[in-house]
């Protein structure tokens, strides 16, 4: 029988529950708080930074410059390549690949191409997009590696192609073996596992190499200031600027941006309910990106002001630490919302949540890294260096 209701809205009668108003209000409330905090952070940063740059550029002689303290003093070390720079390139490349996959998947879901009724369709789209975004991973990691004066680009490409997918695949295979052991129909068939393997080795790996080759052929990214040959000594840092404390503190705000939405996503995955509000999910994702960027920039600025120039890894880990809070929330959710008693079921839950948390770490870490990368290049290109 013909109906006036469009296809995309036909599930509304089943999916929009009686407490949907609470859902909307809670999400809007969360978004408003995070937007307010982001606005405050941006305002403080802009005022402080413009004042600093104006002061530094008004210095008349070298004696005054010597009296100055803060981020300008470390200009000769701030672009010194970090320890394990190759590993950082691999993680940043993987993060860009993950960011591209997440963004495009959300756009498809937002436009109604991925129905909440067809869960397999969403997962298939994510896997295929991940495979094709391998070009971005290779391109990004090799360009960054070239900036760090690296020469073994093929080794970095291999690590980019195999490290993150390899860890995820190993975890997934172990969890799937447990389901096989239980003789459950929920186990992924061997044929599907083999197809995933073929996608990884047949399409993803070659695409990572193509992207890496193109990235390494590009001109080297030039630093705004020269790097000194001898590393500068870092003064004693205050307790609140110690790496462990600053990194853990930095992850709170990005997690705060998503934890309400996270509750509904976990309910959708583990309590067999439909997740339907992709519009709000997209807004939360944008807020997450902004929050990760701004909190990492603020903490990076304080770090440089205290003359600590080891910002490369700290930028990645500051935003990435929100994944720790995500996993902690998953533990809380397990004991408060789920009634799982079987040992294997518990292992499956924590195994899959570990995979999700690891992916979240790579995604948010990359956002934080690129925010700091842009910020540091911007401020050191803005001041006069004698």
From TrEMBL:
A Pfam family per the record: EMP70
Membrane topology: Multi-pass membrane protein
Chloroplast is among the record's keywords: no
Matches recorded under SUPFAM superfamilies: MFS general substrate transporter
Gene Ontology, cellular component aspect: endosome membrane; Golgi membrane
GO BP terms, alphabetized: protein localization to membrane
Compartment annotation: Endosome membrane; Golgi apparatus membrane
Bilayer-crossing regions: 22-45, 88-114, 120-140, 161-181, 193-216, 237-270, 276-302, 314-335, 347-376
Keywords: Endosome, Membrane, Signal, Transmembrane, Transmembrane helix
Source organism superkingdom: Eukaryota
InterPro entries with a match to the protein in the record: EMP70, MFS_trans_sf
PANTHER family per record: TRANSMEMBRANE 9 SUPERFAMILY MEMBER 2 (PTHR10766:SF111), TRANSMEMBRANE 9 SUPERFAMILY PROTEIN (PTHR10766)
Family: Belongs to the nonaspanin (TM9SF) (TC 9.A.2) family.
Protein name: Transmembrane 9 superfamily member
Lineage, top ranks: Eukaryota, Viridiplantae, Streptophyta, Embryophyta, Tracheophyta
């Amino acid at each position: 029988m013909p109906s006036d209701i469009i296809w995309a809205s036909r599930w509304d009668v089943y999916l929009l529950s009686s407490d949907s108003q609470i859902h909307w209000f809670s999400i809007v409330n969360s978004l408003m708080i995070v937007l307010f905090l982001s606005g405050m952070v941006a305002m403080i940063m802009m005022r402080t930074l413009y004042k600093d740059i104006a002061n530094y550029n008004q210095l008349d002689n070298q004696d005054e410059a010597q009296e100055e303290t803060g981020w300008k003093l470390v200009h000769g070390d701030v672009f010194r390549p970090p320890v394990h720079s190759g590993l950082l390139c691999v993680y940043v490349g993987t993060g860009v690949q993950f960011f591209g996959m997440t963004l495009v998947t959300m756009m498809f879901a937002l436009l109604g191409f991925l129905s909440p009724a067809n869960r397999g369709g969403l997962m298939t789209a994510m896997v295929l997009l991940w495979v094709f975004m391998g070009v971005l991973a290779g391109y990004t990691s090799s360009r960054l590696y070239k900036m760090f004066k690296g020469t073994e680009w093929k080794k970095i490409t291999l690590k980019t192609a195999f490290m993150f997918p390899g860890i995820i695949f190993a975890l997934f295979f172990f969890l799937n073996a447990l389901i096989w052991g239980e003789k459950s129909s929920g186990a992924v068939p061997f044929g599907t596992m083999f197809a995933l393997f073929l996608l990884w080795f047949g399409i993803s790996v070659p695409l990572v190499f193509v992207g890496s080759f193109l990235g390494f052929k590009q001109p080297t990214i030039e630093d705004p200031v020269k790097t000194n040959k001898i590393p500068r000594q870092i003064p004693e840092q205050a307790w609140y600027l110690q790496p462990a404390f600053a990194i853990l503190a930095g992850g709170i705000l990005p997690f705060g941006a998503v934890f309400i939405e996270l509750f509904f996503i976990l309910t959708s995955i583990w309590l067999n309910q439909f997740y339907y509000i992709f519009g709000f999910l997209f807004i939360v994702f944008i807020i997450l990106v902004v929050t990760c960027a701004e909190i990492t920039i603020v903490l990076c600025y304080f770090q440089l002001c205290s003359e600590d120039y080891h910002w490369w890894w700290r930028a990645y880990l500051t935003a990435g630490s929100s994944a720790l809070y995500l996993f902690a929330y998953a533990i809380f959710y397990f004991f408060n919302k789920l009634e799982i008693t079987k040992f294997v079921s518990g292992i499956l839950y924590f195994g899959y949540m570990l995979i999700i948390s690891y992916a979240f770490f790579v995604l948010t870490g990359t956002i934080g890294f690129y925010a700091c990368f842009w910020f540091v290049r911007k401020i050191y290109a803005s001041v006069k260096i004698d």
